[in-house]
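Why does residue order matter? Because the sequence determines the fold. Keep that principle in mind as you read this record.
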Amino acid sequence: MNSGADYSNDPNLARALKPPSQAPWVLMVVTLVGAGAGGAWMWGEMGKTKAAAAEAQAHATAAEAKRAELAPKVEKLEADNAELTTAKEALTRDVEAKTGELAQLKGTADKLQAQMKDEIARGDIRLTESGGKLRVDLVDKILFDSGESQISKRGEGVLARVGAVLAQIDDKTIQVSGHTDNLPLGDKLTAQFPTNWELSAARAVTVVRFLAEKSSVPPQRLLASAYGEWSPVASNKSTSGRARNRRIEILLTPALAPKLIGRAKLKEAAAKGEAKTGAKTETKSVAKAKPDAKPVVSDAHAGRHKAKK
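Structure:
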């Protein structure tokens, strides 16, 4: 057997004897390295995602805590806003009512001005508007003879015209006050009128009765009071001043019902949810009050009523 035979011409044998290629191993190593790098990148991305999710959760938790903290403040602000809105509406209604009241008062003054223009021109009657009130001052000589408490014929005509205007008013209290100067009464009058108190009271009551009986002014809106010499509008040191002080004053004021106003305030407070301890106590007192209970009056008012009697 020839050991030096040439096998190069046998391709199959040449391929079998050829050393194995390193390419598959290199490819596998590259693949494994790539897979490892991809896994590391994905792991990193998952970590970032988890961190972002944790941060978002922390923000959400903090936001919820802040919302819970602010909720009572928001509720209080909403309640305050509702209260302010209600107060604004009430104020608007009050302003509108006051505007209407002043317009009506001015209308009454204009009517009296037209009815009594001659007496006003002579200074026998004075009209004064102030603070939602209308005051009509009539000097005594156009209503009474000297030292008398009965209305004169001339006085009846004057009061009839005044009463025609007053009878058209349905929301005012009409207070009729008698006033005198500071001179003592003569001997002939002291038997009937011991002091100026009695004379001023008698004249006020006479005017009230005339307005109710002759001019159809509702009696429940009339009030008689006597000031005597103690509420002058001019100096008693002069004849003209004393003449001004001897007068009948008719004062128109808003007709108020204290008990009804108290109940209205309680209802308003209850509607707002503000009826707390003080309001509850007041509610109980109103509930226990008798239907015909009279409102409390001041000492000065009580004194006027005594003088009237």
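The CA atoms of residues 118 and 124 lie 9 Å apart.
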